[in-house]
Structures are given as C-alpha cells and as structure tokens.
Amino acid sequence: MKLLVAYYSRTGTTRKVAEVIAEVLKCDVEEIRDLKNRVGVLGWLSSGMDATLKRLTKIEKPVKLPELYDVTIVGTPVWNSTVSTPVRTYILEYRSRFKQVAFFCTQYSSESNALKDMEALCGMKPIATLMITRRQMETGDYIGEIEKFCAQITR
Ligand SMILES: Cc1cc2nc3c(=O)[nH]c(=O)nc-3n(C[C@H](O)[C@H](O)[C@H](O)COP(=O)(O)O)c2cc1C
Questions:
Q1: Could you read off the pLDDT of 136-147 as tens digits, one per residue?
Q2: Can you tell me which atom of ligand 1 is nearest the CA of 9?
Q3: Mind listing the domains of the chain with CATH numbers?
Q4: Alpha carbon distance 55, 79 (integer Å)
Q5: Rounded to an integer, what is the distance from CA 72 to the centroid of its chain?
Q6: d(Cα 42, Cα 150) in Å, to the nearest integer?
C-alpha cells in the first residue's frame, strides 16, 4: 500500500508528529507550504482570523501527487477550533485526487472540530484519525497514539 503524509506546520509540532508517522509507516512526506507570512504575533492573529473566516491561501504546488497514493494522511494544527488555512486550501485543491484519507491534528486542548471539518471538506470518511494534545507531546504519550493510528491505517 502506498501512503503519503501531507501536513502543514507553523511552529513545528505537527511536523514532528508527521515525521514520526512517516517513520513508522516508512512512507513519503509532503510539507504543505503557505506563501503567506505567519510568523510572530501578527502571524498568529491573522491565522486565527483566516481560520475563523474559513479563508483560503496560496500554497506551493505539491511535489508528491495524492493520486499516486492509496491513502493520503493529512495533518494540521488546530486554529480557532478548526483546520488551519493552508490545510483547508490543500484539501479543497486536491480532494478530487484522494483515494482514501486519514487525518491527524495537533492542538493545546483535547477538543476541537478540526477532524470533523476535514471530513466534511474531503467529503470522505477517514480510515483513521488522531488528535494529539500539547500535554501528550510533553509527556511523550503521543508516540503510543501514533503507533495505534498507524496500525489502523495498515490493518
Ligand atoms: C491562530 C491559532 C489558533 C489556535 N487555536 C487553537 C484552538 O482553538 N484550540 C487549541 O487547542 N489549540 C489552538 N492553537 C494551538 C495550536 O493548535 C497548537 O499549538 C499546534 O500544536 C501548533 O502546531 P504547529 O506547531 O505545527 O503549528 C492555535 C494556534 C494558533 C496559531
């Protein structure tokens, strides 16, 4: 089974999770790159606004095409309880090429609508989902959660 992890990360947390998933699954990774500058406090504020208003952004053209993979595993940081703007854009631009999907998100708390929103945007039920909190990152518990998520994808 050919698997692709496609993720966006503003400050590195989602990247770390994406890299561990790719290592466990031994699969390809595509970083979704936003052309908008989201650094610092101003970047944080505008990102929150963009997410709440469900705006889209300009992203770099991906190198790895989802249609060449059996499952596209899409990862996002949670912004204002929903999917981040670059991942919203990626899903809307490439969803017609997804065969099957799995989703993961990283966030401070343990509640958000991000996974549900990703499902609605894709118009497709995910074969697995994973939500990682800041606390799980700090304690290292996220590794076990990733292993369970990967096992669901490959079963
Ligand atoms: C604009 C913005 C809005 C956020 N909104 C939420 C939120 O609603 N709920 C939450 O638990 N975390 C929220 N966070 C925290 C991020 O989801 C969390 O730090 C995430 O792991 C960051 O991932 P990254 O380092 O890959 O960018 C928000 C962060 C930003 C920048």
A1: 999 999 999 999
A2: 26
A3: 3-154 (3.40.50.360)
A4: 12
A5: 10
A6: 36
C-alpha–C-alpha distance, residues 77 and 130, integer Å: 12
- Each residue's pLDDT, cut to its tens digit, for the chain (155 residues) gives 999 999 999 999 999 999 999 999 999 999 999 999 999 999 999 999 999 999 999 999 999 999 999 999 999 999 999 999 999 999 999 999 999 999 999 999 989 999 999 999 999 999 999 999 999 999 999 999 999 999 999 99
Specify the 3-state DSSP secondary structure of 59. Answer: strand
54 secondary structure, DSSP code: T
Ligand 1 center–CA 33 separation, angstroms = 17
The 3 state secondary structure assigned to 118-129 is HHHHHCCCCCCE
Ligand 1 surroundings by CB, under 6 angstroms: 9-15, 44, 47-48, 77-81, 106-109, 112
CB count within 10 Å of CB 148 equals 10
Closest residue by Cα to residue 80 from 105, 103, 114, 57: 114
Residue 133: strand pairing partners: 107
